[in-house]
Amino acid sequence: MYGAVRSPSRIELRRRARLAELIALAGGVTKQAGKTVNVVHTEAESNCSKRIAGSQKSKVFEEFKLAETLAGDQNANPYICAGDVVIVMDADPV
User: Fold this and answer.
1) Per 3-state DSSP, what percentage of the chain is helix, strand, and coil (rounded to 5)?
2) Do residues 23 and 5 make contact, with C-beta atoms less than 8 angstroms apart?
3) How many helices, marked H, and strands, marked E, lie in the chain?
């Protein structure tokens, strides 16, 4: 968990967890948070129950709207797998 979160750190997953839950575990977002959160999938698809059964074609990189993720929108709040890298992007400079 990197980027604009209060406590950037490595989080060990022992069960399925959604993106919004991991952001909360990292202390939530900072004032510098932008509008997007990126997920980079580093492990093979088979290592995460076929990318959480029933999902579409596996992608290496996904970008979500932070507001939708924090609101719990299922389309912007995926399950995160072991090895995935989550980056809450900083806001663009004004």
Assistant:
1) 25, 30, 45
2) yes
3) 3, 6
CB atoms within 10 A of CB 10: 7
Burial class (CB in 10 A: 0-12, 13-18, 19+), 14: exposed
Question: Could you tell me what percent of the chain has a pLDDT over 90?
Answer: 68
User: What is the pLDDT confidence band of residue 58, given thresholds at 50, 70 and 90?
Assistant: low
Domain spans in the chain, listed from the N-terminal domain onward: 2-90
The CATH code of the domain at 2-90 is 3.10.560.10
Assigned token pair, 52: 């959480």
User: Is there a contact between 80 and 35 (Cβ–Cβ < 8 Å)?
Assistant: no
Query: What's this model's pTM, rounded to 2 decimal places?
Result: 0.85
